[in-house]
Amino acid sequence: MTTTTSPTAPVGSPGGAPQPPRSARRRWPEGRATRAFRWLATGAGALILVVLAAVALFLIVRAWPALTADGATLGEDISWFPDDSSLLRFVGPLVFGTLLAAVLALLIATPISIGIALFISHYAPRRLANGLGYVIDLLAAIPSVVYGLWGAIWLAPRLSPVWQWLSETLGFIPLFAGPAADPPRVILTVGVVLAAMILPIITAVCREVFLQAPRLHEEAALALGATRWEMIRMAVLPFGRSGIVSAAMLGLGRALGETMAVLMILSPGALYSFNLLQAGQHQTIAANIALQFPEADPTGVSVLIATGLALFVITLAVNMAARAIVARRKEFSGAN
Hints:
By secondary structure, the chain is mostly helical.
């Protein structure tokens, strides 16, 4: 009688499941190049924290004389420091003007940037989309002083009739209370110029985010009978929401620290005012530093560095808030 022998299962493989070769399971020791690269990457990451801490320490040390000085002393020693004022009362209107200009720029630029990014990623023909992408990247590389010259010499005279119309038509709203300044060296003009400066940054980031939207989700929406706009509203925009927030925060960071464009356009003031069309109402921290620094004595430099410390804290808080918003949606895939 013939007996049939079944193949013997390898040792250590329950149920006869094949195992990978021993060489594939071997854990090779970490080489010198791998260790060097790992330590180099770790050092680069730590360097960012070191630089951030060094900047913060520098600002605190150099601003300490102003932080501990009495307001009356600062008023006596510094010609441009207001009398009968404290450092907090001096910095407050500058912080208000900085935030107001940046928020105006963000409100103007974000919807336009999203529209341009959607047109490039989902509507424009390929050749036109590539050309617009190059133009957007080129706009992001233009120096701020060029934007300032453009805003002060070309844009402001053309905005003057618009601001006059807003003042006459919507003057009952406190934001547009008149009379509108002529020439319009006002915070709203600054907001328009800053919007033009941050528009390429927001557009470029949003474009890349929209291009990463899952193709299967878009095709599924179209297959169910959705129009292109409905597909974008249901599949693309929800997927790119965290990217839009990140792009807006990048633009906001640029607007918060802008100096030359604001200095060349805005007629400075030191008020808590929401009158967007009147001159001599607002000033930003960065522009005030550039304006006062050349003639400042050591005490004045300390005061200006104290205002720079306030701007540093504001920028850090904005970025931390943006990171928190993005982290809440990092598991979102566009399908839920």
